[in-house]
Amino acid sequence: MNIRLLVVLIIMNFNMGYAQVNPLLREFNTPHQTAPFSEIKNEHFLPAFSEAVKQGEAEIRAITENTEKPSFENTIIALERSGHLISRTAGIFFNLLSAETNDELQNIAQEVSPVLTKYQNDITLNPVLYERIKSVYRQKDHMNLTTEQNTLLENTYLSFVRQGADLSDTEKKRFREISTELSKLTLQFDNNVLKETNSYELHITDKEKLSGLPESALEPASAKAKEKNKGGWIFDITMPSYLPFMKYADNRELRKELYMAYSSKSFKGNEYDNRENIRKIVNLRLEMANLLGYPDYASYVLERRMATNSEGVYKLLDDLYNASYSVALKEKSEIEAFAKKSGFRGDIMPWDWTYYSEKLKIQKYDLNDEMLKPYFELNKVVDGVFGLATELFGITFKVNKGIEVYHEEVVPYEVYDRDGRFLAVLYTDFHPRPGKQGGAWMNDFKGQWKEDGTDSRPHVTIVMNFTRPTETKPALLTFNEVETFMHEFGHALHGMLADVNYASLSGTSVYRDFVELPSQIMENWAVEKDFLDRFAEHYNSGEKIPVSLVNKIKESQNYLAGYLSVRQLSFGYLDMAWHTLREPFDGVVKEFEEEAWEKTRLFPVIDEVCMSTQFGHLFAGGYAAGYYGYKWAEVLDADAFSLFKEKGLFNQEAATSFRKNILEKGGTEHPMVLYKRFRGHEPTVDALLERSGLK
């Protein structure tokens, strides 16, 4: 045997052996090819990414070295199908990074992120590949493509243009540097906020200081103290701990302390401070936009959004502001008058707002979270929300303990269509942990696509930070947590019911200002007695939620509607201010923030707090120049739900149309085309203003 052959065989045997050791480098022999979490260790990720990139590069070379004339099949489809191992590995890794992270994973992310950015840049900045794509694109009017194929071609071509394919060599080099640096900075931004969140606790040993707090808030705080071998109670700035404290604690100084801790995340001048990260991120985004020929980053982003440009965004924000701000001022005056009658002296500050507004709500509507929580036991809520999907769309859910999970609290479900066809795997992850980012989100470990006659079904996850069970009570949710669950479940439906050919157009791969429609419309059922009667039973007595309570929920639904609208609009204005900058930012982050949302301000400026430094949606997520999308989607969801109000909450015709035209179609067509096909007309703000009591 010659030496070269021997070396090749040794390398092959080594690689085969390593693939057996590294589960990420082999086919998953698991139910529905789900991730084998028990086998995956942190040390597997870097080698897996390295091998995945090699495979992806080989797939790209096969396209560029193809001597046949460029065609839709050998260029566009071949590109769409490339990078499977990268997508699978990244799907697992980045979901764990958000839901079950640790220092080692965060370090790996800092190492991997620039590698993946380089890989993506190597594709979109490849001149040979781009020429092949342009060649196919020029033929598009003569190729008899389906609507979905045409969208894929259009998206592919524009993605190359928008990622620098037309730049000069010098400009391409700078584009690479910018995108690599941005990938690192956005990760660091998120890590800083998580570390700040985890580093704070309010430890109280004197029960007199906890006056006003209900047992449902004290019991988990006591359990948290015991976990840390401490006496008394520990509160933190995760939402299940923070919000009840702000609502009910009589001790104003402690409310202020907790508020300041929550609102000053990554704004303390320590190692987790994000101000410099913000400066770098917005300036790099501006430079990237300028390189590509746009005056600012918002212009670049909005070109591929329903709003189309900054003028469209500001029109929406301003229209809603004009309808909301005067209402918000009246609401504030009402809270101030109530607080004064209650003996409060001085100016109402943010740490007073939730406390007194909750007390006024109780007085006006005889309703609070403690009255509702006994009817929202988590397992019953799960049954109810899943049951709604069964009623509307005919899908069913079955726990399969044979599907591995990444944490013992995660529950895996198989999802089936009404005809028994397997649709998806759904993971639910409900409670806060030190390794989990704050908030709530939906994502997928694997998307949906069709290839060679096989419909590859998605693996979807929904992650929350809900109230935990205690020693004496099951997990009882606030009404807001119920709405949050329904919101994220709406995103999950978008992913699970996807029925398209190409992964890049599947599920939630839609315009950012359209993606919130499936989530926000689901929240509308939460106030309907016919829906609540199906699951909302007292966890002790089994009594259905009384109609009187449901009526109170409805009556109080628009409580502080003006304030809540203005608050959301303030975030939209702040986002647009950061991303309509046309000169590099070298100012003071806090001053810029205050100026950006000055018109929405309802409270005095507090120098020690800052929203921007913890605003992950903008600086670590995908909502830069897109936060307005929540309000945009509110317009859509209010208009869309009015069809169900008109035809019936569980009307099959409306539900089937929503499934077929919205949930299944993903990004295969322009969202307004899909919406009009479902609704019959374009939406207006009227339904939203009417629903929220602002009209």
Fill in the keyword field for this structure:
single chain, 695 residues, mainly alpha, Glutathione S-transferase Yfyf (Class Pi), Chain A, domain 2, Neurolysin, domain 3, five-stranded mixed beta sheet, two-stranded antiparallel sheet, 56% helix, globular, disordered N terminus
Please explain how this structure is put together.
This protein has 695 residues and is mainly alpha-helical. Among the domains are: 141 residues, Endopeptidase. Chain P, domain 1 (Glutathione S-transferase Yfyf (Class Pi), Chain A, domain 2); 64 residues, no CATH class; 251 residues, Neurolysin, domain 3. It contains 28 helices and 9 strands. Strands 3-4-5-9-6 form a 5-stranded mixed β-sheet. The protein starts with a helix and ends with a helix. The N terminus is likely disordered.
Describe the SSE topology.
Layout: H1 3-21, H2 45-64, H3 72-81, H4 84-99, H5 103-124, H6 127-138, H7 147-162, H8 169-199, E1 202-204, H9 215-227, E2 233-235, H10 239-248, H11 252-263, H12 275-291, H13 297-302, H14 310-341, H15 350-365, H16 369-372, H17 378-393, E3 396-399, E4 411-416, E5 422-429, E6 441-446, E7 449-451, E8 454-456, E9 459-463, H18 479-496, H19 517-522, H20 529-532, H21 547-556, H22 561-579, H23 589-596, H24 616-619, H25 629-647, H26 652-663, H27 671-679, H28 686-691
